[in-house]
Specification:
mainly alpha, 278 residues, two-stranded antiparallel ribbon, 2 domains, single chain
């Protein structure tokens, strides 16, 4: 009896049934394309496949249409089609990657879509479609904004100094470029110095000096060029478990979604290596 359960027992039971309800719903959805092909709903005296799906599983007409459309889109992509038909992955996740799925990349996508949550899949699709390109609009040397919309921002003090240089006939573009190049060299030199004296470690903590130089290079944003989200993780592009080093040359600040994508790619690469060995 539910009334005899503790709060924790009740929660665990509800959680268990809810998880399994979603799983069986996915399995049901995966069978709909075959139900449609056989017109099984007519044989069982349902007016349409939409009535069939609604009365048996509470699915909306849109959910049914989405499923049937996906099955058609995946007709030349067997790995993705199998995920749909077997109910291994939800339609909500599959519909997010359909726009970038091709016969050439579908096997890799089939692996990735099982690992990544929906938000990360949306980010992956945006990246594949070119992302959002920042705009630089500097029509004249006045105070500009460099906010979330990607427009350059110079404060009055900097603008004044640059205008003074320009009035003297000095090429301010050259001055700025030299300063930026010097900054890049200094950061690169600092990273090389740290790397040359870097001990191995089992600790996942990234020392403050290394965090600082990575922050100097990338700021507080995700290091993916088309992404403007805050960085939440320092990703080791050189697998830490193999190197046991926090080498700043192989560290990239990433947002949550791109960090998940990076690790999903590592999993796919590892699976390919294991398959090749076998």
């Amino acid at each position: 009896m539910p009334s005899t359960l503790t709060d924790n027992q009740l929660y665990q039971k509800v959680k268990f049934y809810g998880k399994n309800a979603l799983l069986w719903r996915q399995k049901f959805i995966g069978l709909l394309p075959e139900v449609q092909k056989r017109r099984l709903y007519e044989k069982k005296h349902f007016g349409s496949i939409f009535e069939f799906a609604f009365k048996l599983a509470g699915l909306s007409e849109q959910q049914v249409r989405t499923t049937l459309n996906l099955e058609k889109r995946f007709s030349d992509k067997p790995a993705l089609k199998a995920l749909l038909e077997n109910g291994e992955v939800s339609v909500n996740k599959l519909v997010r990657i359909q726009a970038i799925a091709t016969p050439q990349n579908e096997e890799e996508l089939a692996r990735v879509v099982k690992i990544l949550p929906r938000n990360a899949l949306e980010t992956l699709v945006r990246d594949e479609n070119g992302g959002s390109k920042p705009k630089i609009e500097i029509k004249s040397l006045h105070v500009q904004d460099f906010g979330h919309d990607g427009v350059l921002q110079l404060n009055e003090k900097v603008t004044k100094k640059l205008l003074e240089l320009q009035k003297k006939g000095i090429d301010v573009n050259k001055v700025l470029l030299e300063l930026l190049n010097r900054r890049e060299r200094e950061i690169a030199d600092e990273k090389e110095t740290i790397s040359a004296n870097l001990p191995t470690t089992t600790s996942r903590y990234v020392p403050a000096r290394i965090q600082k130089v990575v922050r100097q290079e990338h700021g507080n944003k995700c290091s993916i060029p088309t992404c403007h989200k805050p960085a939440e993780h320092l990703h080791h592009t050189q697998t830490f478990a193999l190197s046991n080093r926090h080498d700043p040359r192989y560290l990239a600040p990433l947002c949550k979604e791109h960090h998940l994508i990076a690790h999903s790619i590592n999993v796919v690469v590892q699976e390919k290596r294991e398959t090749a060995v076998l």
